[in-house]
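Blinded run. Sample ID left blank on purpose so nobody reads anything into the name before looking at the predicted structure. Input follows.
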Amino acid sequence: MAGKMPVRRDGEASDVAQTYLYLMQQGFSTGQVIVVDGGHVLV
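Blinded prediction complete.
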């Protein structure tokens, strides 16, 4: 399945953690929903 996704790899916990840290650093972002799926919804 990973080969069919746009990023060509399986996601890891660090991918979700990086997104979480990004949102924590953004003082102007509130109530956001960010899908961390490697583009799976596009396939």
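Unblinding after everyone has recorded impressions. Residues 13-25 form the longest helix (13 residues).
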